[in-house]
Amino acid sequence: MLLSVDVASANWKIGILTGTVTQNEEEYRMAEQMQAEFGADRIIIATYPDRFMQEQETTISNMLEMAADPDVKAIVMVQAVPGAAAAVDRVREFRPDILIVLGSPQEDPMVVASKGDIVLNTDDIGRGPQIAEQAYAMGAKVLVHYSFPRHMSVETLAKRRELMKAKAEELGMLFVDEDAPDPTSDAGVAGTQMFISEDVPRKIAQYGPETAVFGTNCAMQEPLIAQTIANGGIFPVQCCPSPYHALPAALGVEVPEDKKGNLDWILEAINGKVVEKGAAGKVATWPVPVNMMFMQAGTYYAVEWINGNITSKNDKAALVRIMEGIAGRSVNLTEYPDTDNYYLYLSDHVVFQ
C-alpha cells in the first residue's frame, strides 16, 4: 500500500530496531541521531538482545510491538540479525502495508530478499578490486595482504583476495601474501598484533614506502595503521571500513562523550592527526560506517516514502541519491544475483590529506 501525502501529513512514526550500545555503539548513536533529527514522537527506538542468537523470540516480539502501533509506517532494522526473517513474516500477517528496510542481514540472502522491501549489505567481494584500485590511486606499487588460513577458508574472503590480486597485477602492482597468527589460536589477539607490529616495518623496509598493507581481521587494524604511518607506507582501508574502526585508537584521538556518533568531528580529528604525523595522502577509509549508513539511508528513504516523495517501496535511483547525499561522494549499489531489492554497497573512499 502506498501512502498518500494526506496520510503523511497526519501522525506517522518510523521504528528503528538495532543493537544495544554494548553490541555496537555506532549503530545505537545513529538511531539516537535520527530521533533527534525527526523527533521522539516520530522515531521509535527498540533493541534486539545482546544474545540475539539464543533470544530470537525477543527480537520478534520487539518488532511486533512496533508494528502493533498503527502510526508506525516503516521499520528499519540494522543489523538484521537472525530472527529478522521470522519477525518480518509475523509483521506481514497483520501489517502488509509497512515499509521494511533490513541492513547487514545475517540470514540466507534469498530468504531475506523475500522478506524486506529493501535489503542493504556490503559488497565484500566487490571490495577486492576496489581495494587494489584505491591502493594504486594512492601511489602503491606493492600490496601486502595479511590473513590466516581460517579466514582464507571463508568463500567471500578468499574470492575477495583472488579479485584483489588479479586487479593489483592488472595495474602492474606486486601482490604479496603474508600469513599472520590467527587471533583465535593459542597466540591470541596479542600474538596477532605483535606479529603485525613487527612485520609491517619489515615489509616497508623490503619493498619501500610505496607499499600498501591490508589485513582481513579487526584485531590487526590498529597496529597496521600505526606501523604503516610510522614507517611511511600506505594504508588504503580497513577490513571493516569506518572512520571509527581502529583509526582513532591508532592515532591517539580521544572522542569526547558529546562527540560520539559525530562523523564530521571524527573525520576532521583523524585528518588533523594524519597530517600531523606526515602521512597526508597515505591513509584512507570510507566516509560513513556501513551500518550507520544503512540506518540513516533507510530512515531518510522511509520519511520520503511516507511523505509521498518516493512512490515505490523499492526505488534504487532514490536510494542511491539518498546515500550519496549522506556520504558526500559517489556510491555503487548492485543487486544480489536473482534479486531486485537486495543491494550490495560500495562507497568511494575519503583520503586524509
Descriptive overview:
This protein is α/β, with parallel strands linked by helices. The protein has two domains: 5-123 and 290-351, Rossmann fold (3-Layer(aba) Sandwich); 127-285, Rossmann fold (3-Layer(aba) Sandwich), CATH 3.40.50. Helix content is 44%, strand content 17%. It is built from 14 helices and twelve strands. The chain has helices at residues 5-9, 25-38, 56-67, 84-94, 109-113, 127-137, 149-152, 155-170, 188-207, 221-230, 247-251, 263-276, 290-306, 316-327; strands spanning 13-18, 43-47, 72-78, 99-103, 118-122, 142-147, 174-179, 211-215, 284-285, 331-335, 342-347, 350-351. It has a seven-stranded mixed β-sheet, sandwiched between helices. It has a three-stranded parallel β-sheet with strand order 7-6-8, with helices on both faces. α6 (127-137) packs parallel to α8 (155-170) and α13 (290-306) crosses α14. The longest helix has 20 residues, at 188-207. Residues 1-9 have low confidence and may be disordered.
Which residue ranges are poorly predicted, with pLDDT under 50 across at least 5 consecutive positions? 1-9
Mean pLDDT figure:
93
Question: What Rg do the Cα atoms give?
Answer: 21 Å
Strand portion, in percent? 15-25%
Continuous helix count: 14
CATH class of the largest domain: Alpha Beta
CATH fold label of the largest domain = Rossmann fold
- What share of residues is helical? 40-55%
Give the structural class: alpha/beta
Number of domains: 2
Describe the biggest sheet?
7 strands, mixed
For the biggest β-sheet, the strand order reads 2-1-3-4-5-11-10
- SSE order, as H and E? HEHEHEHEHEHEHHEHEHHHEHHEEE
Q: What would you say the CATH architecture of the largest domain is?
A: 3-Layer(aba) Sandwich
